[in-house]
Amino acid sequence: MAKRFLIPAVPKNEAARYTDNPFDSQYYVGLQGYGAGSKDIIVRPNDELLIQKGGSEAFNVYTRLLFDETVQTALVKVTQEITSREWKVEPAADTPGDLAVKEFVEQQLRNLDMDEVYRGMMESYIVGFSVGEVMWRRTASGVVPFDFRFRDQRRFRFQEDSDADYGFTMRLCTREKAFDGEELPARKFVVHRYWAQSNGDPYGAALGRILYPLVKFKRRALESQLLYSDRFSNPTAVAKAPLSATTVEVDTLYDHLSNLSQETALVLPEGFDLEFVNPGGSPETFQNLRQLLCDSIVNLIAGEDEAGQSGAGSRASSEVAQSVRTTRAHDLSELVSATLNNSLVRWIVDLNFGTNVVAPKIYRDFAPKENVDLSMSDVATLVKDVGLRPTVEWITEKFDIDLEEEDKNVPTGPEGTAGVDTANDGGATLDSMDDPEDDDIDEEGDELDIEDDVDLDTEDDVDLEDDDDGDIEIEDEEADNQDKEFRSLLSALLGEDFKESEDAAALMALWEGKIVREANSNE
Fold first, then answer.
1. Residue 500: is its pLDDT beyond 70?
2. Is residue 193 part of a domain?
């Protein structure tokens, strides 16, 4: 029987191992020898600056960059752009089982400070990589993480392993094994890397190696500017002595000139001249140099240098800068979220539901928000005049309010107004109100008399009077309950001052007219 398909052999293992690179062989040290042919190779950072300063132990060169004011300002702008977005957990599918897994994972993540987790992992953007240790605890609900602790990058080494993530496993240096380190338990350490160049370096290749000379030159420019300012504010004193002056006189004059900044007056013998010499150049030279370096640093980290600056450009330019910074923050957020999905989120599912269960995904919501400024009166106009009825979820999110179950109805409002009377009701809802159309209803409320001493809690029947048809006695229990509920709601929400207003009279007239019409229709 002829073969229908001819499948080629699947390549196995790595063909171009990281440690087989002949151009970087001097960076590798094996536990069983040296060079690319040795086994259990511990990799050093592929960074000439770090190698010159001590290799893996020199990562504090890059971590110290985080304490520079310009670097910290730019990094905080990008990080806040990420942490200001709400983080969400997306289920793998809409099945009940996947939704239950999603709820469990989300609950465990809420026990952690996820903003701090994202903020700490963003250090890899400057340093190259960041390491966080997950602290687990066995509880009645399952194995859950209760803390996420970041560790010093200098304590870790990477050993080549073609079957591991990125081709390396991480080892921990201890006092007993300071060179090769110890093996680490599974599902314990989260490693996040950033590569400005995708060279496969397990230590990452971040912006630190670019920022280092910029920060160094900026600091030197600041030192030069301070020295120049000191010289400019305290110019050099030059004294001219006659040829007949003795050495003692010259030395005495020199001592006085050395302390001239502390003297209030100075007497010179006849024939001696004194003048002050200021340094040449302009003090703006160093200021412009420092500003250029600061702008370069901020541009490198945030992608723009306008936000937060007093001399920002036009509105269109600022919007472009905001868009660039948001795009970069979104990309960095996706990288951090991918690391958490492959580590922390995956581990929570493994330890509680099994390794064969598809894990949900965490992400930051960067969906653009509609920039529409609507007040409550605008929404009321849309409801009354246009006929639109916004959802409770939209109202809750737009106006940042929590609605109770009994209040989750969009009000229609009284006649003569565009929806809700926001000036008096404070956003309260009045349900079950119809627009009156009968001519026999006094809309102005001239004949309506509201007594302040009405017992709103009584269970007796209520007698309502109609202007044209005379007394009508309503005995229907449902109508009686509706009347008491309306009066109680009106009194509780609108207060005593509202009872004497024309709006209160109109509301009561509308309600009594509705009760009368219902009674007539029942008859």
1. no
2. yes
